[in-house]
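Fold this complex.
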Amino acid sequence: MTATQSQGGTPLFRMEGICKRYGGVRALEDASLAVEGGRIHAILGENGAGKSTLIKIMAGAVVPDEGRMLLEDRQVAFRSPAQAARAGIACVFQELSLIPDLSVADNISISNPPRRFGLIDRTAQRRLAEEALARAGAEDIHPRTLVRDLPLSRRQMVEIAKALAWKPRILILDEATSALTAGDVAKVFAVLRRLRAEGLALLYISHRMHEITEIADECTVFRNGRNVASYAAGTRSGSEVVEMMIGREVSGVFPPKPQRHRESPPVLACDRFGWSDRLHDITLKVRPGEIVGLGGLDGQGQRELLLGLFGVLRGTTGNVSIDGVATSIASPGTARAGRIGMALIPEDRKTEGLMQPMTVRENLSFAALDQLSARGVIDRDKEERAIDELVRLLAIKAASLDIPVGSLSGGNQQKVVIAKWLMRRPRIILLNDPTRGIDVGTKQEMYQLLRRLADADAAILFYSTDYDELVGCCDRVLVLYDGRIVRELEGAGITERALVASALHVDAQAEAAA
Amino acid sequence: MTEATENKTSLRARLPAPFRRIDPAVLIAFGCILLLLFLGSLYSSNFLSLEYLLQQLKVASFLGVIAAGMMLVILLGQIDLSVPWVMTMGAMMACAVAGFGTGGMILAIPFGIFCGMVFGLLNGFGVAYMRIPSMIVTLATNVVAQGLMVLYTGGFSPQDSAPEAMRWLATGFIIPGVPNAILVWAAISAAMVFLLTRTTFGRSVYGIGNSERAAYLSGIDTRRIVMIAFAVSGALSAFGGVLLAGYASKAAQAMGDAYLLPSIAAVVLGGTSILGGRGSYLGTVAGVILITLLQSILSVMQMPEAGRQIVYGIVIIVMLLLYGRGPASP
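Structure:
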């Protein structure tokens, strides 16, 4: 820690040697952090670098496996967010946590309303809300307004007021500005500066680099579950910061990319594809044998794009064509059928990919039942053969195929999700972050498999939150930002630096350097 | 959780082959049936006579037909509360049509079932397309069916005695000694087992019950499956009503009221998860027999009606509690 300590004493809050694992995946490994009162401390890092786990531990939502936390040199351990809040650590979360049908005052004191004779004291509650709103610089919001009637930016202010109602000494803001426009961000910043002047410690997490440059006093960069660098804000350039966030070599786990002939006509193409206000003007082509990556920060419309192509979303605009023929795909049932032959490996294998309590066998054949049956009656021999073939092909490890699929390891579950779609021999494969939360070994098998499928002329559209994967696997990468394709990278141009830079929308020099 | 599952599997693997695939809940239900028969035989040896057992199976078959449809809907994670009046409607409409000469006689049973199916389709449409919770939709259609039947019987006195065909179906004998109602139930049961284990429809029902989202994303036409399941449930409710009317020789208002709770209880006692996705048809058969025996034994013991209902309700709650502690879905 090289952090200069402004107010001479010990830091207000410290955490040391924090480790947290989820199954085989390490979210945090020996991470430490120190925050001081009267400072705004920014946390930076790629997706999955451990930022959210860190603040969840601070806020009491997650209990660490190892390590200790010190609040003013006294060791503390939080078992619930309420406990952390009472100790003086409050959190403004990324997703709004307000209940739309309750009033602002109800929301602000929802977890700890002032009581009189066991009933909620409405007058006191209202006073409390007014105070908190005033501190958050939102005096104009009436405590009795329903949250539903407030615009998004005002709701975010209520969210901040709700955290302030705990009278915290440390306030964590996790992507608190991601839903706000520039004007609203300026207002939030004014409030943050005033809170800093009042002596609060502020922890600020954002992907928007210019915001961090503008507001932070100190920055800590996280990578792979560790804090790798801390520096005073403004002492490093944008490209240096990007370098710190990536900081590792692309390892040799990826199969070699073959030279491609690009003459073959695209299997899947879409033209000015859009949906609601989440996707705009998406134009792309995927050729047989090609792996096209979707990059960018989390939640920039990649999921919606895949779901939209697969016919899940209502009211998409623009054209989709399959083999050059304009095609309307109204449901997954249409998408998977004959001429189109599309498959989607969904994001959440627990609720979207698998029926957890059903057996491995039943899950494997579920998406291909129509092909394994005649007049609605399942041909058991055919089913058996198809299942055996795929279990061998993907090396699925299960004690028996008759146990619930939910009892397999994460990696094997993901293999089942992919196998159930490969059973249909799809021509177009959409993958929504298929390697999230699975072990490295299975990941490598997955990369080999994708390349084999591509070599067998499948067209693959592959969204990943792991930039390493996009660099290692893809022939082309489309980077999305705010529902639009902002950049297309190709061949040697796909570097982690270029991906991070375009995902963050960083200045042109970082791009030029790439 | 993984360990527990593996333990369970290894334990199951040690059982002899035919029992390995049977849900423990089904075994419990059959065990309870034997226990009830044993307790009954202490009271009177008549409980073990072939005559008594066949009589019980005949009475159980009405409930069995209805519970078969209910099971499909529960496997989807839904519920069908329109049973009582759809049943009554099926019976009344069949009797009414039978009043129109020979043609009416032939069409009586199919028409009764058809009416039930129409109501089932309405339920299915409400659930699958309008996205109304099934508890609300089916409660509403139940009231509509009730209103229609009251309207129908209000102004004049319609034909309400069951035609010969219906009586024969419920109480006649193709095989001497075995009432036809039991054969009907057996045939429907065979069809259900085939439907649930061997067809894409059955597999889809289980899939939707476990995760509708995953089933939809696998390309299943979930709305069609839901519609069909509700239609089958409505048709079987009406068919149950037709059989009951044949047994009682006439259709009457509110004749289905006593069948709603037992049909749900039979399915759940048989080990089908009320949340959908899990359960075997064999269990439902066991549940139906169990409930019928329970009712019969309580009435033979000449317990006053009030006490009978209390015991009946408590037994159902206790059994559900037992299952709840059992192998819960992960």
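Chain B touches chain A through 28 residues (CB under 8 Å).
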